[in-house]
Amino acid sequence: MASVLLNRVAHHNRLVQHCFHRCLQTSSVYQKNLRSGVPKTTVKRSVKLSYETAQYPYQIGITKSWNSWHTSNLHEEEGASQAALEDEMIRKFLKGIWGNRLISECIIKRQYNTITLAFISNGKAAIKELNFLTAFTEELFSHIFKRPVKIETQTFVESDDTVFKWV
Description:
single chain, alpha/beta, Alpha-Beta Plaits, two-stranded antiparallel sheet, 4 helices
């Protein structure tokens, strides 16, 4: 009887040791998390990066700017999810309206009741066309969001003027 009990205890100990060795990892951590979001270099260095896209993701708030400026994320403030959905809708509408004329990402600033959109556009189009697009976009967004929307654009004739780094 005692030998049966000792065999069961030994078997239980082996199971515990097997599970312990199986579930516990004792190797050092491989730091691979700093590579996410970093653009990879190409063979001929043919990909253009602007200043905004050349910065690493962990440098947001240091050398890279936030793409959305609002105070909805403060303590006990409401509307953070609403602002995020509106920002995504604004970016998709801008991409559809402006098309290939957008060179940079859109920076969305919310101050009081006003939404300000800042981006860089391609200046190869006629000035009348750019003025029409600016006015049309301001009116459309003002009508959709029921608040004043201002657009601040900067134009470059050649897109190579905005290249910060080639990868």
